[in-house]
Design goal:
It catalyses: Hydrolysis of DNA containing ring-opened 7-methylguanine residues, releasing 2,6-diamino-4-hydroxy-5-(N-methyl)formamidopyrimidine. The chain is α+β, with helices and mostly antiparallel strands and 251 residues long. The protein is built from six helices and ten strands.
């Protein structure tokens, strides 16, 4: 599943399509009124968390790439039928595959709280801290994946941030020291920007410390791996150097 930094890269790479007019639209999504799209100009192309947004005068097309979604710019994926294919009067095309597409009505500024996007200029660490404190009993591995708190953070970022901060994924919010809670908010954003830089340089995997790794780079012991928390997402951690902040200590 593409994480927020990958969607931000997509949004940056298609800015040249802003202002172009849709000449033809097709695809296999039952949610889209394809006949309404030709003649519509692209007002903006933006990202919010894991959502890619194509703003039109009528509404916004919200694209979520799920687990295996992909896209092509000015080309097509051989042997695959796009969920949405857009051709433009000024030239060029955008094609989206294996994704979820929904219509967002009204103004984007009202539909989305940009303070919750870890990569947005409007990101509010104060608001993230407030939301964390409203969820005191939840696990660190779950709150990091909560898109209402950290829009754009995915499983890779979750695993790497928790390791960087020496926090066990089953630590509960209420038992985290306040300094760790603030660091969690800070690193969720900082690592997301590092992720973006590394991905653009094609060296992202080289920087993984625990995600998909077998040995702790600090302790040189075998890493633990399991599907943890309510989200049941695959998690990698070190039992020695990642402290479990949980007074109950019950799995």
């Amino acid at each position: 599943m593409p994480e927020g930094p990958s969607i931000a890269i997509l949004a940056e790479s298609v800015q040249g399509f802003a202002g172009r007019t849709i000449a033809a639209a097709s695809g296999n999504s039952k949610a889209l009124p394809y006949d309404e799209l030709p003649g519509q100009p692209i007002l903006s192309l933006r990202s919010w968390g894991k959502h890619f947004l194509l703003e039109l005068p009528l509404y916004t097309l919200r694209i979520h790439f799920l687990m295996f979604g992909s896209y092509r710019i000015d080309e097509r994926k051989e042997g695959a039928r796009p969920r949405l294919s857009l051709q433009f009067a000024e030239g060029g095309e955008l094609n989206f595959y294996s994704c979820s597409i929904k219509l967002v009505e009204g103004e984007l500024e009202q539909a989305y709280d940009w303070r919750g996007d870890v990569m947005a200029d409007a990101w509010s660490p104060r608001l993230a801290l407030k939301k964390l404190r409203e969820n005191p009993e939840r696990f660190a591995c779950d709150v990091l994946l909560d898109q209402n708190i950290f829009a754009g953070v995915g499983n890779i970022i979750k695993n790497e941030v928790l390791f960087r901060l020496h926090i066990h994924p089953l630590s509960t919010v209420i038992n985290l020291p306040q300094s760790k809670l603030r660091d969690l908010v800070k690193q969720a954003r900082q690592y997301s920007f590092e992720f973006k830089i590394w991905k653009q340089a094609l060296v992202l995997k080289q920087h993984w410390q625990v995600h998909n790794r077998s040995e702790c780079p600090r302790c040189h012991i075998t890493l633990q791996r399991a599907h943890l928390g309510l989200t049941q997402r695959r998690t990698f951690w070190c039992e020695r150097c990642q402290t479990r902040y949980d007074s109950s200590l019950v799995l």
